Amino acid sequence: MQRFLADGSFLRVYLALALALLLTFGLALMGLALVERVRVEQYREQLAEAPLQLLSWRVAALPPHERGNWLTQQSDLLNMRLSLREPDDTDLSWFERRRLDRGRALVKIYDEDSWRLYRQLPHEERILEARLSGLNERQLRGLAQLLGDWLAEVDGEARQRRLEGVTSHALPVQLRDLAPEGLDSHQLSRLREGELVIRLLPGHWALTVHLAVPAADGSRQWLSIGPVSALEPTPISLLLLVLVIMLGVLAAIIYLIVRGVEARLARLELAAGRIASGRLDTRVKVDGGGFIGRVGMAFNAMAAQVQSLLRSQQEMIRAVSHELRTPVARIRFAMQMVEDMTDDPAIHRQLHGIDSDIEELDQLIDEILTYARLDSGLVNGTALERTRVDCRAVAERVIETLAPLHAHLRLALAPGAEVEVQADPRYLQRALQNLVANACRHAQSRVLVRLSLESRLVRLDIEDDGPGVPPGERQSIFKPFARLDDSRTRRSGGYGLGLSIVQKIMAWHGGSVVVDDSQELGGARFSLLLPRVPAGKDRLPPVKPV
């Protein structure tokens, strides 16, 4: 872990998150700028739609030889440069050409003083181009006057059709028989005299243009253009929507990053737990070449090294134990030959002592081999088979076996109900027998076996009235060949492997073994803790530690 902290790998994760934040913030700003740009372009095109449509209709209605003079006159009137262009003579893109082909207006702004407006003439390929340096009152007055003159050319339904053709959402146009409301007497007087009146709407950032249009019968109608509103700021609802989208994108990015890191770390944690439980062939799937990928490769290398070392150790222990049997057998054979060659009682006593030592050596070799088999997770080359086992019956068999060997002690099984677990009966009995035998070696007069059920565990307690186990030694006694000082005598016996074998058996079954003080007898209390049988299940699948 320090290595990955030292080389800045975790720092790169935080930098990635910071970059994700900056990227999301940048995307949000770009989104707002794009939305604002689209709004401005749409607003300009909507404003330009009706005037350009009016101009294109007026030009299309003229004979080709009169168009140039008319465009020159209107250019002076409107303070803009009007011209007709061939499609190939413009610098428009393919998408802009398609927009014009669909009868839409196009506004291009190169800078603040260079605007260009385009619209295709009706039923022609030629394009009307208007160049101007910005919007001003002169253009507004000229376009309104041009519209009024165009409407004055016709009357009745034809005038209404022309009016509907130039009306748009951004530039409403109305024609009324009654004078407009909201004008003062001076404005009405000017309007009746044929002047154009521009009215500002206070508080709305909008204006309306009014103009009198004469009719064929001598009467007048009143033309109202507008209100033309200025572009309003971006609505708060739109800003909130963009903010929500930004936060959603940010949350999704962070979630994906954290989820990927968490999932890969969870696989590392699971693999570490499996190796801790003895499944040394567990490996982590390495995805990518990031710092977690390097952690996974280092983890796999560590697991392979640990597995190799333990396998070598186990093979060496088994090899040494098997090799010891040959010289032990030769010593025993030679001892029997010496015993047959003499009748001296003193020599026979010595030979009997040697035979006892050889027997102890044979038992030690058996214990070492058993420990090595359990440590490697194999028992006679087969997987551990767990079945439903009656713990009370197992305890009774252990007591019946050991009671004749310890006649000076009183071995008893506490009364209680039947207790069942999922376990290998042979090795569960071996673990219980090791603990009861250990209690018999240290007890003064009594050994008690007690079975009990807890919420999720089955508990097997073995208590004695001996000296107990000091608190400082309660972890070390489960190490191989570890014994307390007062047990290193021929009277107490033992090789320091019995408790280690019990611990291996319990770990193999998914349980544990603990030691504390006996409250009833005053000595030591060893406890086997095993998982309870799941409700509704008679048998669990076989488990093979790897």
Keywords:
single chain; alpha+beta; 5-stranded mixed β-sheet; 4-stranded antiparallel β-sheet; disordered N terminus; disordered C terminus; EC 2.7.13.3; transmembrane; cell membrane
Structural class computed from helices and strand pairing:
alpha+beta
Could you tell me the mean pLDDT?
76
Fraction of residues in H or I helices? 40-55%
Q: Write down the Rg.
A: 50 Å
- List low-pLDDT spans: 1-7, 378-382, 486-492, 538-546
User: What is the percentage of strand-forming residues?
Assistant: 15-25%
Spell out the blueprint of helices and strands.
Layout: H1 2-6, H2 9-60, H3 64-78, E1 81-85, H4 94-101, E2 106-111, E3 114-120, E4 127-132, H5 137-152, H6 157-166, E5 173-176, H7 185-192, E6 197-201, E7 206-214, E8 220-229, H8 236-276, H9 291-341, H10 345-375, E9 387-390, H11 391-402, E10 410-413, E11 420-423, H12 425-442, E12 446-453, E13 457-464, H13 498-508, E14 512-517, E15 524-531
Parallel strand pairs: 10-12
Antiparallel strand pairs: 1-4, 2-3, 3-4, 5-8, 6-7, 7-8, 9-11, 12-13, 13-15, 14-15
Question: What would you say this structure looks like, in words?
Answer:
- Residues 319-534 form the Histidine kinase domain.
- The chain crosses the membrane at residues 12-35, 236-258.
- It is a multi-pass membrane protein.
- It is found in: Cell membrane.
- With 546 residues, the protein is an alpha+beta fold.
- Helix content is 51%, strand content 17%.
- The chain has helices at 2-6, 9-60, 64-78, 94-101, 137-152, 157-166, 185-192, 236-276, 291-341, 345-375, 391-402, 425-442, 498-508, and strands at residues 81-85, 106-111, 114-120, 127-132, 173-176, 197-201, 206-214, 220-229, 387-390, 410-413, 420-423, 446-453, 457-464, 512-517, 524-531.
- The strands form four sheets. Strands 10-12-13-15-14 form a five-stranded mixed β-sheet. A four-stranded antiparallel β-sheet has the order 1-4-3-2, sandwiched between helices.
- α8 (236-276) runs parallel beside α9 (291-341), α9 (291-341) runs antiparallel to α10 and α10 runs parallel beside α13.
- It is rod-shaped, with a radius of gyration of 50 Å.
- It starts with a helix and ends in a 15-residue tail after the last strand.
